[in-house]
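seq:
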Amino acid sequence: MQVRPYHWRPSGSFLAHLLKATTQQHHRALAPTIARLVPPTAVVFDVGAHAGQYTKLFARAANHGRVYAFEPGSYARSILRTVVWLHGLSNVAVVPMALGSEARLDTLTIPLKSSGSFGFGLSHLGKPSERWRAVAQEIVAATTVDSVVKTLDLDRLDFIKADIEGWELRLLHGAESTLDRFRPRLLLELSGTALARAGDRLADAFAFLAARGYRAFRFEAGASLAPVAESADGDFWFIPAEDPAANAGLWPPDQSCRCSRRPKIDTGPRSRL
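struct:
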């Protein structure tokens, strides 16, 4: 495997990635569900913001709130910042950091395609997968959700989305205080193969959240959420059991969920795995 330092360079593939990110909107089917779960005044952490497809949806939903888009990769972040500027997303702050279980410097690996373009959607922390013939790497700064909340002196955090190629459980370990204090709703991409890259297991991610009173849901056609009985690969929405939204998972597509404003509930001490 060929490993080279990351260097940005102008290229046709960069322009193609930028054009796609700017002019297209992915995840449109999720927009009604995001609008139900993200109040207009929400504070949102979009972790692994990539080129900003989810960031744009969160910015529209929390149009009177604040979206923090965390993206450690220089290539993805150059696209993300341009998308935020071109779309006039004044409520979005781009944060050039990774989030995990501790504050540290880490190595971000970006796969290189045979064409020479970056497969930046599969960038991940840690050692490169053997499936790639060539990769670029850069040193990035990592911190924790709890540290960011403390540094920014946030008095609320309503929603966390994380798609970070296997470091989702590490992120949760670094967010324990925030999960207990603010009880944010979560959208996590979980893959057993990706989690193994960080030394974690899929079942442990589900167990971690279940032990803290979170219920798992999967998106289904018709903009509804269905309860999940067992751990599996996929995109999952985790909602605190005491949250009214957890009991309104199977919303009819034409019925709004009256659960955007949630009372703060003292959940008391929680067991730790």
